[in-house]
Amino acid sequence: MRKKERAQVVLERLNDQYPETPVPLDHSDSFTLLIAVLLSAQCTDKKVNEVTPALFAAGPEPAAMAQLEEQEILEHIRQLGLAKTKAKNVRRLAQLLLERHDGEVPQSFEALEALPGVGHKTASVVMSQAFGVPAFPVDTHIHRLAQRWGLSNGDNVQRTERDLKDLFPREAWNRLHLQIIFYGREFCTARGCDGRICPMCRELYPNRRKPVITRKA
Q: What separation in angstroms does the CA of 206 have from each of 8, 178, 196?
């Protein structure tokens, strides 16, 4: 099976499996989505969803968040990894939205990536899910599965993103990146599948004998 054929199988199976693709991070608007994605680095969406209700009650929009002391933000998110750095970034990000963007979340990759704590993946999630701009955010789940499914050589997340954008139609990107995440968490986990076990891996590579060694992002 060629790479394009594997991509078509992945697209068809995931559309059948996950016709609905809700964003797994709880949010109410582009600002709370931006903060939630920033907080999700090196921790689970579930844990982020546990701490953000109180944080967003205290700082539901940039003006209110900017008024919070860094220590107060830290108290809300202390359970998360890198909490001190994230607290600092959240407060400064809110301040910069007020200073540079009239309190609005900017709708460009360049402006988003200029904010503290916001990398390309975070910007891609916000652009795709808040503003509907085609993007293909690549996290560890997607990076791992792209290798297992033979969609990318997996040298780094930048290469994986380029490969996936080349393989799949632009109109599918925003939904597909979530579908891959959902599938990875449910069936093709880091320890639960080595590239030979889950239904997708078996269909794509029915004769695979050796496990796939995942290259780190």
A: 16, 25, 8
Are 163 and 152 within 8 A, CB to CB?
A: yes
- Tell me the catalytic residues: 121, 139
Complete domains list, the chain, with CATH: 3-21+136-204 (1.10.1670.10), 30-129 (1.10.340.30)
Does the model's pTM come out above 0.90?
yes
Q: Give the burial string for 104-137 (b: 16+ CB within 10 Å, else e).
A: ebbeebebbeebbbbebbbbbbbbbbbeeeebbb
Q: Number of H helices and number of E strands within the chain?
A: 12, 0
Q: What is the pLDDT along the chain (217 residues), one digit of tens a residue?
A: 899 999 999 999 999 999 999 999 999 999 999 999 999 998 999 999 999 999 999 999 999 999 999 999 999 999 999 999 999 999 999 999 999 999 999 999 999 999 999 999 999 999 999 999 999 999 888 999 999 999 998 788 999 999 999 999 999 999 999 999 999 999 999 889 999 999 999 999 999 999 998 777 6
